[in-house]
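At this stage, I wrote out one protein's amino acid sequence and its backbone structure tokens, and that material follows here:
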Amino acid sequence: MAGAIRRTTAVLSVAEFRGWAESRPENEHWELIDGVPVMMVPPTHDHQRIAGNLERLLNDAIKRLPRPPVPRRVAYQRIGVNLGPVAEDYDPEPDVAVVDIATTGEQRYADRFFLVAEVVSSSDEARIERKREIYKLHPDCECVLVIRQDRYEVIVDLRQGGAWERKTCKALRDRLNLPTFGLQCSLEDIYEDTIGPHESVRHN
């Protein structure tokens, strides 16, 4: 989630926001937060690499599942998700989301999402907790990941038997285990080819 650089003054519904956003130039990126359109700054290179690494890791893991879910699930970057009726004034685009595979080539929004991930920095701290809790209210959501781009840290909220459990990983050798998605990886895999807070993380 890239930091916001400015807001409009209008308070919009999701439907109004989407109609308004279609009129904006293609190079602008907006989300609806608490009914207010927020324009997001372009993401950093590390932000993009972390999201790309996670998307690849998830898709590879899902393909290896012995019994793939039906309909088939897939990970996408920056796909729209429908939160209503859970939240009528939020229209986010998670950095990565696992959803049912699209039924048409024109599909922009997913009604069902099973995992969402936000790549955040210190400028996002005021909004990310509220955003995380809203994602967790959706009945299909099984996992919420918050990945810091300014330090090695991944917060994992995982639904287990109807209850949410939280785990925080802070070392590159710490492992994420998400059995529903077939994913077992280290933080080093997620931060591969990033500069990170101290030094470059690269795999040979």
Remarks:
- The domain at 43-190 is CATH 3.90.1570.10 (tt1808, chain A).
- DSSP finds four helices and 13 strands in the chain.
- The two ends are 29 Å apart (CA to CA).
